Amino acid sequence: MLTILLLLLGNEIMAQPLRINWQTCFDLSGREIIADIEPVSDGYFILQMYVGEYEDGQILLRRITESGELIWEKQYGGSLGEGAVKISKTNDNNFIIMGATASTDGDVTNNPYPNSYSHWLIKIDSSGNIIWDKVLGNTSKNKMEDGILTDNGIILYGWVAGGGGDVTNYYGGYDAWVIKTDLEGNKLWDYTIGKSSLDFGFCISETSDKGVLLGGSSLVDEGTGGNIECQSHGWEPEAVLFKLDSLGNYQWQRCYGGSEIDNINTIINLPDGYLLGCSTSSSDGDLTGSGYHEGYLPPNYDKTNDIWLVKIDIDGNIIWQKCYGGSQWEGIHEIYLKENGNYLIFGSTCSFDGDVVGNHSMDIYSDDIWIFEIDSVGNLLWQKCFGGLGMEGREMAVYQKNGYVHLIASDVLGLNSGNIDCEYNHYYDDGIWLFELADSTLSVQERNLNSDFQLYPNPADDIVVVEHTVNSKGVLTIFDIQGKIRLVRTVFENKSFINTHSYPSGIYLVKYTDNAAQTVSKKFIINHVK
């Protein structure tokens, strides 16, 4: 009971640790769909897809200052439609745009697969000028979902609806497909994942051995043939994970999920394995005991999705798994590992119950951006919603400026409410809401010092160790949850031992100030074991 109480208190004290530093909106006449954010020397590139009122989509690139002011914007494409997925900086200080095209004119110089959407690579300089472009795919429908730039090439991942062209193997229906090129866009290898049914690729991550993890979903039990061999938990789409080496050779595969729909949407690498960011409507199979929040969406009353986080070891075996959300739809976009070993999750929610508090949406069909933090074993520490009455967060990009400041770009419908305060030119078109989010519990000086300051164990019993490298001399101050000072100590060494035997169990704050008046602080829990 005491541990549960402390976690609840932790949620209460840390309920609102984030603040918006600045925000702005972009809204052309038509629909804008956010794709990615990439830093440049004096600001950021914002990559989007833009669909005009009477046009097919084009790639839209905006260059903005560090405070969100527009410097310039450019569109790329031809007459038959384009899409945008990723932008990454190259070692020669240029940039690779990863997207799609069906065009053979305009900026598309050579498309061997006209009139069908294929992968499109564009290399640009920092001013947005095209250096070269390359089309990869075939004459069937191709959809890129994710892409990464490595030190020796470009890897694109999504799905295809047919064989031929750059697709070496095709098993039927839709297949997940990955292709690697060199840094000039020339094909090195490709690999297909699938059976004769519906198989989709959603996310990719380069591993420490220069291989790749490929996450997606598959109707495993409905298809025949192909190369998916892992055991499914039901007849709905199963979350599927493949590991390839650096040359595109198969190493292993896993299926995760229950009897309902399960997908892998994002992956991050960890020192001891990986964390999978998934969506699910299952509560059995691998999700037994996960805490799935059951719900149904009218009018068809389909089961709704939770965010499902799955920690696995380097061989794909589950270490722990847990669901987050409420009785309506949740989706996940990004995961970041914090310096303290916790995880910061960026997603969206339509719920008003369960783990979700403070949703600004007008109804269960609209999303808010949903951000929450969990500890190293999946316990929810705090959560916060950002948005207004309309739909935000369904399409979203996040850039981690440092461990405490994030730049977020989201879809938005022109309506000021909740956290949104923008000037609009087109109130009834989908625009982009861009804002910088900071940890409000830390000052600027604290953020600079925080990475050099460690406190352990946390939770603690009788002893807390404070270790710092910022300066050997300083002052330690400990506050309780009411703000009362419990200890003031001048320290001269880089490691201090604090006897907490006489402190009541609860939440405390330790603050360190060095002799240059710079400060850093961290929260910790005392939980006396009886």
Automatic annotation (TrEMBL):
NCBIfam families tied to this protein: Por_Secre_tail (TIGR04183)
The name this protein goes by in its record: Secretion system C-terminal sorting domain-containing protein
Pfam families: Por_Secre_tail
Annotated ranges, domain Secretion system C-terminal sorting: 455-526
Listed InterPro entries: Secre_tail
Species this protein is from: bioreactor metagenome
